[in-house]
Structure formats: structure tokens, C-alpha cells
Design a protein that fits this description.
The complex is a heterodimer.
Chain A lengths: L4 E3 L2 E4 L5 E6 L6 E7 L6 E7 L2 E4 L8 E4 L6 E5 L8 E8 L7 E2 L3 E5 L1
Parallel strand pairs in A: 2-11
Antiparallel strand pairs in A: 1-3, 3-8, 4-5, 4-9, 5-6, 7-8, 9-10, 9-11
Chain B lengths: L3 E3 L4 E4 L4 E7 L6 E7 L6 E6 L3 E5 L2 E6 L4 E6 L8 E9 L2 E4 L3 E6 L1
Parallel strand pairs in B: 2-11
Antiparallel strand pairs in B: 1-3, 3-8, 4-5, 4-9, 6-7, 7-8, 9-10, 9-11
Classes of the chains: A mainly beta, B mainly beta.
Chain lengths: 113, 109
């Protein structure tokens, strides 16, 4: 596609519910990041993929967070047993290579009530 | 100390003035630096990348990099109200792409 596509754009989840957020990167982009952005803050790193390999997951805040990219293209960020502090915008970004600028998707705004 | 630091602002400049945005980073070995613009409620948009010491100009935007001082800046000439946004500095360190917290810029007509 022409850009990075994320779905859903908005998600409201009841506390304790599991959610899955999808990222469809630009075709051919090898590198993929997930970020969490709270209101008024810069994006905070969650995890990084190069193709299907998850090279860094040190930013995932707890073991309730899980990300995968099984075929090196679409990636899914899963949050189990959501908590109110998980409410944020989740941004996905992709790039041709690890040292290039990244293109962001529109994000998924998650609200946990 | 955060890996990438920016003055959060807000920074206000009159229309037509030069806006100067600054960023420092912690990893002396970093090689790739970026400036993103983020409008309220939107995702970050890449506006400049810089990899070598010195200045890089693109239209009204100039990025400046000083690796010895671990400092990168963005100058916006002839500022327009449409430039009002949050500007995020980003640096690649190892496998991670670190962002600063952003500087909020308001251009006053």
C-alpha cells in the first residue's frame, strides 16, 4: 500500500478485555517498530522487528503485551487483560532499513474503561 | 538522563520569524537523526533527516548536527501559522529509534 495502515483507528475496551492491534507496513519495508504515545508525550519504544524476527522487545511494559510479525509483513500487537494505564495511542512505523527515517501509521487510540 | 532531550516549550514565534528547535542525545555513537512534525491528534510526519555534521537545508527547514556536542537542531525560516505543531527529535541508537518528548511550537499570525 501507499502508507502504513493501522486498524482499528479507535478501540474502547473494558478493563480485563484482550485487544489486538494490527499494523500493515509499506510493502517491502523490512524494519517495523511499535510505539506507545501518551497524551502530551513523545512516542515511547515498545518493540522492533526486522522482517519476522523480533530483535528488541525491551520496551514492552509487562508480560501482558505481546507482538508478532510471523511472515515479515503484517504485525499484531496484543494486549491481554487490559488496564486503564494501557490507554494511549499505539503507533506503528516502518522503514526500508534500520537507519532510514520511519513512516508512521495513523495509530490506534486505545481507551480502557 | 533520557536518551533524547528536548525543551518541551511551548515556543511561540511571530509569523515570518525564525523558529529554533533544539535537541541533545546521549549516545555519542549515534549516526542517524530525524525531525518529525506532529499535529494534534495526528501521527508523526518525517520532515528532515541528517547523518553528517553541518547543515542540511530543505526549503524553509534547516537541520544542524554537531556530533561532538551531541546536539541537533531544526531551524524553520519564515514561520507560518501552519507550522504550529509539536516537533519531535528522533535518534537511532543501536536497534532503537528514540524520540524526545517534543517541542510545542505556536506561530502567531
Amino acid at each position: 500500500g501507499a502508507g502504513v495502515s493501522q486498524s482499528p483507528r479507535y478501540k474502547v475496551a473494558k478493563r480485563g478485555q484482550d485487544v489486538a492491534l494490527r499494523c500493515d507496513p509499506i510493502s517491502g519495508h523490512v524494519s517495523l517498530f511499535w510505539y506507545q504515545q501518551a497524551l502530551g508525550q513523545g512516542p515511547e519504544f515498545l518493540t522492533y522487528f526486522q522482517n519476522e524476527a523480533q530483535l528488541d522487545k525491551s520496551g514492552l511494559p509487562s508480560d501482558r503485551f505481546f507482538a508478532e510479525r510471523p511472515e515479515g509483513s503484517v504485525s499484531t500487537l496484543k494486549i491481554q487483560r487490559t488496564q486503564q494505564e494501557d490507554s494511549a495511542v499505539y503507533l506503528c512505523a516502518s522503514s526500508l532499513a534500520s537507519n532510514y527515517g520511519y513512516t508512521f501509521g495513523s495509530g490506534t487510540r486505545l481507551t480502557v474503561v | 538522563q533520557k536518551e533524547v532531550e528536548q525543551n518541551s516549550g511551548p515556543l511561540s514565534v511571530p509569523e515570518g520569524a525564525i523558529a529554533s528547535l533544539n535537541c541533545t542525545y546521549s549516545d555519542r555513537g549515534s549516526q542517524s537523526f530525524f525531525w518529525y512534525r506532529q499535529y494534534s491528534g495526528k501521527s508523526p510526519e518525517l520532515i528532515m533527516s541528517i547523518y553528517s555534521n553541518g547543515d542540511k537545508e530543505d526549503g524553509r527547514f534547516t537541520a544542524q548536527l554537531n556530533k561532538a556536542s551531541q546536539y541537533v537542531s531544526l531551524l524553520i525560516r519564515d514561520s507560518q501559522p501552519s507550522d504550529s505543531a509539536t516537533y519531535l527529535c528522533a535518534v537511532i541508537m543501536g536497534n532503537q529509534f528514540y524520540f524526545g518528548t517534543g517541542t510545542s511550537l505556536t506561530v502567531i499570525p
